[in-house]
Each structure stands twice: as structure tokens, then as C-alpha cells.
Design brief:
mainly alpha; Serine Threonine Protein Phosphatase 5, Tetratricopeptide repeat; 72% helix; EC 2.7.1.-; transferase; DhaK_L_YcgS; Dihydroxyacetone_Kinase
């Protein structure tokens, strides 16, 4: 099971990288309105570095927790900006949590989302309403935990996660930035979606698609 789980997470990071690269120009354009116009480039470089390091692993020998640990180090090495430590901490939190459950069950997937949220919040000290990526990650994690409590299946859980993340990201356009470079703009940050929240949605969507594909493959093999 660990081999399949490790391979699934490797596929997940590949899918995230492809999705971020496709959104790179849009993310940088969003960042240009309130930041340094490099968010898309930074995120793309970070996930490319992650995949380069993961390519060196043998899925047959790797545990899911190790996939996230490697991703944390690679992302931090590639991205020196504030985003680097935030996602590195998110991946490390997920790695530690996976040591207690390497199954990638729906409950485990919910745990991953919440631990990533916790890592970002732990490192950045932010809250919902600060106009940051947490405005997508916090509601996404809440939706994940609520779905786990209600024993929703994976499809229902990820539908709730994505809806919450998208609503959260869109809500940042009506916020005044309280953290990061955008905070220097004050009221001028109004009317712009936070690029970090937008990229969080892209990451979560790629995660959902990966787990959905994995689930479909398992069901097909049983037919």
C-alpha cells in the first residue's frame, strides 16, 4: 500500500506543478497588482524543484511521509521568498502527520489538508481576513474536517474543500491586506484577489484531481 501511496503523492506533486505552471502568468498578474509580480514564477520554480528531487526516489522504497519531507526541503531550497518557508512548513507538518497514517484514506487526505493549513498558519502567524493564502486554506481545512466528521465520501469531501477554498480566495478581493507586501498598500489593496489564495485553490484542485484519479483506478482494478 505504501508504494501505491507514495506513487500517488508523487503524481500529485507532478500535477500541482503542471497546474501552477499553467496558471503562472495569471498568478503573477494578480501579484503585480499588490506585490512584486513574481508569485507565479516563484511557485512554478518551487514545484519544479520538488519534482526534480522526487524523481530521485524509488516509490517502492519510499513512504508517503518521506514524499512530503523531500518536498519540504526542495521547495525551501528553491524558494527563498516568504512563500518558501510557508509551504515548507506545510509539507513538514503533513509529513509528520502521515507517520501516524500512511493510508491516504479520505480521513488521511482531510488530515493532510488540515496539517498543511496548520503549517502555513504556524509559520506565517496569519488569520482569516488578513488577505493571504490562509483565506483559502483555513476554510478548505474546515471543510475537510467537517466532511470527515460527517463521514462524507472522498468525492463529497473534495467538492466541499474546493468550494470553500474558491469562496475564500474570491473573498480576498473585498479585504484590505494586513500581512505581507500588500499590507503596505492599505486601502489600495481592495478589489484585488490575493495571489497566494488563488494559487492555494490551484494546489487543492490538483490534489483533488489526483486522489479522484487514484480512486477511479482502484475501483477499476476491482471490477
Amino acid at each position: 500500500m505504501s508504494e501505491n501511496a507514495a506513487r500517488c503523492l508523487g503524481n500529485m506533486f507532478q500535477r500541482i506543478s503542471i497546474a501552477i505552471n499553467a496558471e503562472k502568468d495569471r498568478l503573477s498578474e494578480l501579484d503585480g497588482a499588490i506585490g512584486d509580480a513574481d508569485h507565479g514564477i516563484t511557485m512554478s520554480l518551487g514545484f519544479m524543484a520538488v519534482n526534480a528531487e522526487l524523481a530521485k526516489l524509488d516509490p517502492a522504497q519510499a513512504l508517503p511521509s518521506e514524499i512530503f519531507a523531500v518536498a519540504a526541503s526542495a521547495f525551501l531550497d528553491a524558494v527563498g521568498a516568504s512563500t518558501g518557508p510557508l509551504y515548507a512548513t506545510a509539507f513538514r507538518r503533513a509529513s509528520q502527520a502521515l507517520k501516524t497514517d500512511e493510508s491516504l484514506s479520505p480521513a488521511c487526505q482531510a488530515m493532510i489538508v488540515d496539517e498543511m493549513r496548520a503549517g502555513i498558519q504556524q509559520r506565517g502567524k496569519g488569520q482569516r481576513g488578513d488577505k493571504t493564502m490562509l483565506d483559502a486554506w483555513i476554510p478548505a481545512a474546515e471543510a475537510a474536517l467537517d466532511a470527515r466528521t460527517r463521514s462524507l465520501d472522498a468525492a463529497g469531501m473534495w467538492s466541499a474543500i474546493l468550494e470553500a477554498a474558491e469562496d475564500g480566495a474570491n473573498s480576498t478581493s473585498s479585504m484590505v491586506a494586513a500581512r505581507g507586501r500588500a499590507a503596505r498598500l492599505g486601502q489600495r489593496s481592495l478589489g484585488h484577489i490575493d495571489p497566494g489564495a488563488a494559487s492555494a485553490v490551484t494546489i487543492l484542485r490538483a490534489m483533488r484531481d489526483t486522489f479522484a484519479e487514484e480512486r477511479a483506478g482502484i475501483l477499476s482494478s476491482r471490477a
